Amino acid sequence: MAEGEEPPVSYEDLALIEAEFEDVDTEIMRKQYDLSAPLYAKRTEVTRKIPNFWPLVIEQAPPDIDQWIQPHDSRIIAESLLNIEVRRPELDNKGSGNPRSVSIKLEFKPNQDFEDTVLEKTFWHRRAKDGWSGLVSEPVRVHWKKGKDLTEGLTDGAVALWEARKKTGDMTAKTLPEYYALKKKVDSWNGSNTSFFTWFGWVSGRRWVSAEESEEANRMYLESKEKRMKAAKSEGDAAEDTNEDEDQEEENDDEAVEVHQAGEELAISFAEELWPNALKLFTQAQDDDISEIDFEDMDTDEEDEDDDDEPIDIRALVQDKGGKARSRDSTGGGAAPPSKKQKKK
Amino acid sequence: MAEGEEPPVSYEDLALIEAEFEDVDTEIMRKQYDLSAPLYAKRTEVTRKIPNFWPLVIEQAPPDIDQWIQPHDSRIIAESLLNIEVRRPELDNKGSGNPRSVSIKLEFKPNQDFEDTVLEKTFWHRRAKDGWSGLVSEPVRVHWKKGKDLTEGLTDGAVALWEARKKTGDMTAKTLPEYYALKKKVDSWNGSNTSFFTWFGWVSGRRWVSAEESEEANRMYLESKEKRMKAAKSEGDAAEDTNEDEDQEEENDDEAVEVHQAGEELAISFAEELWPNALKLFTQAQDDDISEIDFEDMDTDEEDEDDDDEPIDIRALVQDKGGKARSRDSTGGGAAPPSKKQKKK
């Protein structure tokens, strides 16, 4: 480049700005979870008293979630789902830690389909050595009752491969009998997911990334970013040599044995759409005449499960027929504050 | 209610929790704009050097925006749009003020369609006395050149009614000639919006709300909320009498003279989708083979307008073909840090 000539804008310049925006987002996410955690706890306290709160919310779930729920899944959810909790397991209370990792816990009544009353799955936000970043998760076994496995062996197969790989110490090993067995199952499934619950067997859109690899990759990434930012400030071309690590292409994707096609997207939709908007979706469910869940019958069905709950008149909750659910980050508000109306028993 | 009996959950309980979530959102929004303002300034500095940056971003706009842009609007945008800026005019630098008000400024090259080189519209987030809250905006005149008015008189009509109402001192006056004239235009338009630029004439999804009314309504709202929260803590039914102000129904909606059907939604989409995701949308435009905007030709066309710009090789900006744009609040990251690659002149 000629002396004194203004360097043109490069993709690098834009990428550096994007990286700075991402740092701000991380800080904002931390702040947000920190401030809203006590409110979510309060909400859970209240919604636990409302029969079928979560089944009704899920009935109104956005398409990102709804498309993965089959009719037999809906039946289990309507009959048995008691509670959902979303946590950010890597956030400590000093306002540091990665706010993008997320734990999703589903609580169920004892039911005819599986032994579990809690299914909890943690999605870790990690960076691979080649620069890829995203969510990864250990597969969670669903203890299906005999003949009830809606995933047709996919969650069991994912857990079996996981355990076998742990024994070998190589989390991408491809020469194990469990690998071939699961690959065959995934092949025969042929792209059409059989059940929402296969999600619990999901590992990664790419491959498993351990905490150690992620820590090392983050360190390299930050070093490289700092070098590039310094270089960008001094001279245009000086940062050419910082990309050696990132050019190591990897070919050990684990797609062939992945049991769910959109595990990451589904986790994000649960954490960022369903969880923050649950009250709005619930209100919307009340306004929706075509609701298939008969919560009044359900109420009497579950009396032996919910020991300390008062029966609740859900219709009394929905006097305000105004607003449909809105995204929380819109202008908010909207409808007038509702009147205090409740029926007595 | 019988003594000692636990009160059932009421819609009021849920609404109070929602109100608390909204307070947290407000605080988070303030923090977010505060932290990201310098980054947006830096981004503008860089993107001003990229010919057709904003036309290419708008070409990739989400459906919420795209549906309001007609082919003749696209032509103006492709030929003349130089820059977009989004500000939060009510935020001061002490971290207070309403973060939901938004100013959207579009800068244009001198062009054959209108005299303006800047069209700026401010959307104020306000509360009406009956409890409604949302965005309202003063209509902005577009100084169309003779015979070029794409809005077919709608923006002029909106401004004329606004001025006439200001003279009477009644911003919802319905007995003015300007009211009948505009109503007739809106009726004849019959629901099919003729141009994106009618947006500049938009006032409200409801009716205009002045700063004074909003201040008074917010004061009432906060008082009422505090009363209800105290009441909710002490006893279930005690807050019955706090709703008198909110029950005052209003019938002076201004729908009959509103020139744009979705002015608020469009403002929110500009501020919360297009603006934060502009770099991602731009990258996406580069990856998109069917782009209709020929930025290389455009580059030479505009040389007389852009005095201090270096010609830029946009293709050099898009070496990374990996990720499509993602919502900023997803797990972020995704692609590997891109290589430093730029072509010399």
Give your account of this protein's structure.
Chains A, B: It comes from Saxophila tyrrhenica. Chains A, B: Pfam families: NAP. Chains A, B: This is Nucleosome assembly protein. The structure is a homodimer of 345-residue chains. By secondary structure, the first copy, chain A, is α+β, with helices and mostly antiparallel strands. The first copy, chain A, has one domain. Chain A is 40% helix and 8% strand. The first copy, chain A, has ten helices and four strands. Chain A has helices at residues 11-47, 53-59, 63-66, 71-80, 154-168, 177-189, 211-234, 263-274, 278-287, 295-301, and strands spanning 81-87, 102-108, 118-127, 133-137. In chain A, strands 1-2-3-4 form a four-stranded antiparallel beta sheet, sandwiched between helices. The longest helix of chain A is centred in the N-terminal third of the chain and has 37 residues, at 11-47. Chain A is globular. The model of chain A is unreliable at 236-249 and 294-345 (pLDDT under 50).
